[in-house]
Design a protein that fits this description.
single chain, four-stranded antiparallel sheet, globular, alpha+beta
Amino acid sequence: MNIFYEQDLREESIFAVAREMMTAARTAPKAKGVDNLVVVLLKKDGIAAVSDTLKTMARRDKLPDFFLRDAVNILSAQALVLFGTKIMSMGLHPCGMCGFADCTEKNKHPKHPCVINTGDLGIAMGSAASVAMDHRIDNRIMYTVGQAVLEMGILGEEVKIVYGMPLSASGKNPFMDRDKDALVKLAGL
């Protein structure tokens, strides 16, 4: 008789859900049908590298403690899905929601985000998070992870906005009700 314990199959289950999340993000609605989304899956070695970068950034740049907290916290994840967007004006008229009069004016500031791109990114992440929820995979959207990923250049130079979503399946969601002080101590800082 073959017996399969949940803990022996957990990682495989999480990766299967991560793939579904990536597909959900890809198929989420995009303005004018233009897809500027970049989605990547990291496993343990990639998660450790992002954690190390977060720790380095926190020390070097004297960032708030929650960067250290998240650096330690993501080490509880079996997978980390990254969501990024390229910045491209959509040519909508009227718009101006980015703060400039129109896309022509905004294009003079290429690093300034187009709100339509960020809106599409948010919809894609929400779609992916709903897949995780449907499968009862613990997750949390983290901007701090995105900051480290941007510094690392993992998603390429064209991607200017990134968020990370760590995934876990355990008795308690490690990404909620986090004790910042305990996690900072774990980081050895």
